[in-house]
Amino acid sequence: MSLNENNFQSTDELNATFAQSIVDILTAGINENGRASLVVSGGRTPKALFNALSKVALDWSKVDISLADERWVETDDDASNEKMVRRELLQNKAAAANFVGLKTEHDNAKDAVETCTANLAKLHTPFDVLILGMGEDGHTASLFPCSEQIHQGLDQGARRTYIAVQPTTAPNQRMSLTLPALLNSKNIFLHLTGDSKKQVLDKAVKGGDEHEMPIRAVLNSADVELMWAP
Ligand SMILES: O=C(O)[C@H](O)[C@@H](O)[C@H](O)[C@H](O)COP(=O)(O)O
């Protein structure tokens, strides 16, 4: 398992290169299977990348886009990852893509696990591209080290695809792909900006308990392309 570091001078440079790499992989996926899948993370980091990506030429009508995790809020709430993806990514050329969101009508994410799992069948697996972010505590997707659900989320022996997570150090209940579901991806990217995230990653790479820094579980089990800029 390896971490291949791609370090850029600026986020503009990162976003331009990254957007083209994603499109190249999705194009290869469409050529091979007729459709391609792109699973993205929320948060602040990917906004400018999504904007750049939305403008790149591709037969977006053959691309299915979903989320690695969702905050369990209404889709018009500013905390909603779906809202951010609709605003930043499903625009311009990428407006033609098919979006498979995670938020359902259920009040509690626990009650929506079955629906999300059924909806996943709408996406080609293994995912062609998975873009992960990382928090300062080493969480990725919504696999939070502080949550009671972290052992279930990282359990590679379990058949679970999604898990409802209640972080204690971050707001909102979440729905998250589990570790084995995240790993079911052909190309895994870790998208980080800033020195402090790089320091957190360095700490994760040095090794230790995966439950204390869940990003370690991904790094220990997959080949990961780091896309980093200051
Ligand atoms: O919904 C979320 O919060 C995420 O998908 C999460 O895993 C995110 O990628 C990290 O928390 C980094 O978030 P920032 O990019 O905002 O730092």
UniProtKB/TrEMBL annotation:
Protein's pathway: Carbohydrate degradation; pentose phosphate pathway; D-ribulose 5-phosphate from D-glucose 6-phosphate (oxidative stage): step 2/3
Lineage: superkingdom: Bacteria
Swiss-Prot/TrEMBL keywords: Hydrolase
Enzyme Commission numbers on file: 3.1.1.31
Similarity section: Belongs to the glucosamine/galactosamine-6-phosphate isomerase family. 6-phosphogluconolactonase subfamily.
Function: Hydrolysis of 6-phosphogluconolactone to 6-phosphogluconate.
Name under which the protein is recorded: 6-phosphogluconolactonase
Organism, as annotated: Paraglaciecola mesophila
UniProt lineage: Bacteria, Pseudomonadati, Pseudomonadota, Gammaproteobacteria, Alteromonadales
Gene: pgl
